[in-house]
Structures are given as structure tokens and as C-alpha cells.
Amino acid sequence: MRRSSRRCWIHDPTTMLRLCIGAAAAALGLRRCARPRASSVCEDRQVSATTDRPALPLLVLGAGTDLHTERGVECPGELPPASDPDLVARARAAKAALGDSVFVLGHHYQRDEVIEFADTTGDSFKLAKEAAARPDAAYIVFCGVHFMAESADILTSETQTVVLPDLAAGCSMADMAAIEQVEDCWDELVELGLAERVVPVTYMNSSAAIKAFTGRHGGTICTSSNAKTALTWALDQKSKVLFLPDQHLGRNTYVRDLGGALDGCVVWDPHRPMGGLTRAQLEAATMILWRGHCSVHGRFSVEAVEAARRDIPGVKVIVHPECRHEVVELADEVGSTEKIIATIAAAPPGTQWAVGTELNLVRRLAARFPEQGIAFLEKNVCYCSTMNRIDLPHLVWALESLAAGRVVNPIHVDPDVAHHARVALDQMLALPGETHKD
Ligand code: SF4
């Protein structure tokens, strides 16, 4: 019996448009306040320090006309206005009042105004491990996106509460694989007699429900750092991998790192019967890639790489493996956010870089390594709109609420889901060799 796929807000064009414009407006400090603030702009290839911002027409979020697709866009409390000149002082005071009872995590792609209050920064898995290593902190305020807060909840103790300052901070890639769709896919593979030959390998950037599916079917979680190890392990177990939810990371790892053939990969489209594939295609494939991608990294283009090589003499192009295969093939270096940071940190002064990852991180790299030339790879890519939902007003609201004894936006993963997700995460931790960084 086929399950009906749930409606996904991230795939609703109207909601996505409103979220993107809302997030862009929030990123520009215009949601509640038109006061211009210093920042870089995407139109400039070279990351710049300051600019005046034009006014944007604002759309009303959380109008309440479609509560399902507007999940989390309305803050269930009194959000401080972005124009409040005391926001920084309020965040400091609330954090000081909470003391060691709160630990603030900041993902590399967060805005500077939020990163300033992070007790530690990192990629998603590093942050989840950091949370687990702070058992004395009753509250983990996760400045990142929803799946990361779920992973932190799974890896922390029952006495700790993970808070996501804005529930609208989702991930378009994670939302491209709904659990009902993935269960449908597995049912199809069972009907075809193929499932017993398939191991699921799921990227960290996925919902807890997909991680639990992976645990129930003997698979493993992977990150962008250990995807090669995870795939090698999986292909030692069985002859095929179902790779969720990022087709690009799966393809790049199989072809680039394991030397597999491109035509050994097929893409399962959850919106088409039998994934849009034939039995013969599924029989022949080694990698069954879920049709998902990152809405930021998927936009870096071959043309941008060519333009960087043309415009910046001696440039080295470094990109994240969530980028499309043809872009990764042209790059000089490919790696996770942690690898990108480490590679640039280790480079000699005067090295010219064109960096293909999220803009907030690239801006901070440019500020941190002024002795190097650091450019953003693509003119037509902007911030991750959902990451940027977390802003200083939401952080202040979350911290002040905790200081007042109110827990807002807690993330609780269902215990059964958490158990099976933990099985898949533990399998990853048991993999040999490389680090487990995202
Ligand atoms: S950068 Fe991409 S993978 Fe990361 S949170 Fe944004 S949409 Fe998701």
C-alpha cells in the first residue's frame, strides 16, 4: 500500500518565495527595521566589507492562511525589534544570567551577529558532539538548522533541552527526502527483489526520521568528510547503495573518491512512479541517488569556475562536495567546510582563492585571512536563506526566555525515532579511519 507523501513547505513555491524574501529581508536587517547595516553583497565577486542597502518590499510571513506550509514562520512570542539598539547588550546580559546552564552552538554558515554569541562554532556533527560533551548545560541553544538541532537532541542526555531560536530554520536539502517518500522507495525496492542487495547511506543533512530509517535497515550516516569511508564500508556489505538525500555528495564520492563509473549512478525521483527508473536501470546501478540537493551549493556553476580562472591569475578553486559533479571536476580542491577552512589556513600568504561554499563562511574567511585573496566563487549565489532565519532578535528572545524560566522552541525527537537514528549514527562512529566532520 503506497503511502501518500506529505506536503512539504519547502517545495511550495509561494511559501518558498515568501521565506526567501523574508530571510533576505531579515539578512538585510529590514524585517522590522530599515536602518542600513554593514555587510557584503552577493553581486560582488570579491567579498567587500561595507555597503548601503536598498529598501526591499516586504511580504507578510505567518499570515496563518496555510498553517502546514507556514510551519514555524510565526514566532510564538514577543520578538525584540531588530531596531533595538540594546540587542547586543540584552544578549550578553541574558547569557551571563544563564551562566553554565546554557551552551550556544553556532554553525559556520550563521551570521556574524549570531556567531558572536556562540560558545563554539563548527559543522553540524562537530556541534552535535560539542553539545553531547557539555552534560552540565541544561540548555543547548542551536544556531543552525532543524536537522542539526535534532541530531543534538539525539546525542545529548534526557536532562538537556535543545532550543532552535527560529523553527523556520529548516534545510531545503533535508526536506527533499520526506520519510513517506523514502519508505515508498524502499517498498518499491522490496517489490523488485532488490532491497536485500541495498544498504542505505544517509548524509548528516537529513531529518531524524530518515536517519532512523537508515538505522532500521542496517545503514550508516555519513558526513562530507567521511563519505568515502562510509561508501566503502557499505559496498563491502552489499552491492548497491541508496544514498540520501544529496545526490551530488553521493555521486562525487563514488566517482571521484572511489573511482566508480558515472553510469553506475541513477537518480531516484520521489515524484515519479518507481523513481522514474526501470527495473533494468535499478538492476544495473551501484548507486541509487536520491534526487535531493543543497539549494546553495547546487547553484555554483561551471561558468563561475571558468570566470574565476579567467579573472583571477593563479586562482585556486575550492568547493564543497555538495556542488554539482561538473563543478567539482573542475575545482582544484574539494572538501567539507572544516577542510576548506583548514586548507586556506595552511596556504601561504598571497594565495588567490575562489571559494564555493556558503557566503557567511566565505566572508569570515576573507576577514580572518587578509593576507590571502579570497573571492566568492559565484555571482548568482546568496546566503542560505533558512540558515539566516536565525538572527539576533531570535537569539535574544530565546536566551531571555530561558533566563525567565520559559523554554521556547524546544526540539524533541520521538524516542523510537531517536533510538534508530542513534543506531545509524553509532554505525558511523564505528567506521574506521577518517574524521566525522560535515
Ligand atoms: S547550506 Fe544547503 S545543506 Fe546547508 S542548511 Fe542551507 S540548504 Fe541545507
Notable traits:
438 residues, 14 strands, five-stranded parallel sheet, single chain, binds iron/sulfur cluster, five-stranded mixed sheet, alpha/beta, disordered N terminus
- Strand proportion: 5-15%
Please state the structural category: alpha/beta
Task: Give the number of helices.
Answer: 16
Order of helices and strands: HHEHEHEHEHEHEHEHEHEHEHEHEHEHEH
Average of the residue pLDDT scores: 85
User: What is the overall shape?
Assistant: globular
* Main sheet specs: 5 strands, mixed
What ligands are attached or bound here?
A: iron/sulfur cluster
For the CA atoms, what is the radius of gyration?
Answer: 21 Å
Strand order of the largest sheet: 2-1-3-4-14
- Relative helix content: 25-40%
Termini gap: 36 Å
The poorly predicted ranges are 1-54
How many β-strands, per DSSP? 14
Q: Would you mind describing this structure in some detail?
A:
By secondary structure, the protein is α/β, with parallel strands linked by helices. Helices cover 37% and strands 13% of the residues. It is built from 16 helices and 14 strands. Helix 2 packs parallel to helix 15 (392-403). The longest helix is centred in the N-terminal third of the chain and has 15 residues, at 13-27. The radius of gyration is 21 Å and the shape is globular. The model is unreliable at 1-54 (pLDDT under 50). It binds iron/sulfur cluster. Iron/sulfur cluster (SF4) binds next to loops.
